[in-house]
Specification:
Shape of chain A: globular
Number of helices of chain A: 2
Oligomer: heterodimer
Strand content of chain A: 35-45%
Strand order of the largest sheet of chain B: 6-7-8-9-10-11
Radius of gyration of chain B: 22 Å
Number of strands of chain B: 17
Radius of gyration of chain A: 12 Å
Distance between the termini of chain B: 14 Å
Largest interface: A-B, 18 and 23 residues
Strand content of chain B: 15-25%
Structural class of chain A: alpha+beta
Number of helices of chain B: 14
Largest sheet of chain B: 6 strands, mixed
Order of helices and strands of chain A: EHEHEE
Amino acid sequence: MTVKTLDARGLKCPMPIVRAKQALDAMAPGDRLEVTATDPGSMADFQGWVKVNPRARLVEQRQESGEAGRVLYIHLIERTDA
Amino acid sequence: MTDTSAEPDPVPTIEVGELLRAADRGEPMVLLDVRNEDEARAWAFEARRAVATVRVPYFDFIEDEAGSISKIPSGRDVAVICAHGGSSEMVARLLAEAGVPARHVTGGMVAYGEYLEPVAVPLDAGEASRFAVWQINRRGKGCLSYVVASGGEAVVVDPSRNIAWFADFAARQGLRVTRVLDTHVHADHVSGGPALAAMSGAPYSVSAGPGLELHHPVLPLDDGQMLWVGGQAGAGIAVGVLFTPGHTPGSISYLVDGRYLLTGDTLFTRSVGRPDLGGKLDDWGRTLFTSITGRLAPLPDEVVVLPAHYAGAHEIDANGVVSARLGHLRRTVPELRCRSADAFVASIRAGVREPPAAYEEITRVNLGVGSPESDAITQWELGRNECAVSGRHAGAGRPER
């Protein structure tokens, strides 16, 4: 299983989802994509997006503190074979 | 934001002010809200008439464009709105390419939450020859600021942090800002008071209450003091200082020319200010009861209450103003009909809600501690205010972004 990373820091909607979709489309079923975003709205956006994207499964979401006290929103998504 | 530099055709836009005016007039339109479900439910665009709103998240358009477009009623103008304006632009472009004309709302809900609408408070002829009162309505948040003017001078009360707007408004009316006041240390929005005062070379006054320290330069006020606008006694008008603690220990109401009472968060048109944010509901609640029933008791029923907040567009009257006669509030606001402080506190305790978003951070900034980044303040201020004790006043929970 390969885990790719996507840096979506500083991007506002729709770009984190747009970039995640592009990356996921190029991946093989079973591979995972870890997206790091700074937009708090990305939490609910990724939850909503995987509901309508049959090729994506949300494995985990977590928050970490980044540089200068900035909150990072991290989304781990698995490419499914639907 | 979407990088538009490579796009040949810009997507048509509509500004928040134009959208509000069209929606207030009841022009037929569809508002397409493309935020995620949580955000769309927590905080919606609202106008003085019901707005036909369709909610389809932008990521639905990414995954199923045709299916998403089929959810939009045809034959009416479509305005697309999102949190910041990025996703709405993307969706409006998809719609244009599919032959559905649509505009996207510049700046999205953030711009809606910042938009300020000045409305002249109707005065009688004798008053209008001597002074003017404008209610500055922050429509998306339900926050109200005031500009009181006489003899070329302006007092600005409870300005929000868009101080350039207030300075520009005063200049366009030919007014010089000579005093900036806050009714209290706000917990729902960052005050523009200290910065507007510094910019205008005017004194700034606010009270945190006995024993609480403010870290701004503040000109202290005394209970019962008269502040003159447009000249000294006789020439201008008087703004009376009336200490009305309770919502906060330092809350002040300002009585303009004996008839227009700027109550801050002490008294709203449907409710009273919540006294629980200091963690002393019983103590502050009793103080609020004394302020409302005692301190305001000598004021006649004809006094016009102009509050610092309102709950929803249904409180805006035909003149576009949020106000009520004090006598009307004495008869209709349930908390004002309580016979005792005990009953008053009990009624408040029964209905107490979650505190407003980020109220501790906002309060600290308004006490003059720290200087957060503008983006952080934008995030804190999202959503409608929740400063009243009752859901009669305030909207739903807090959105993110």
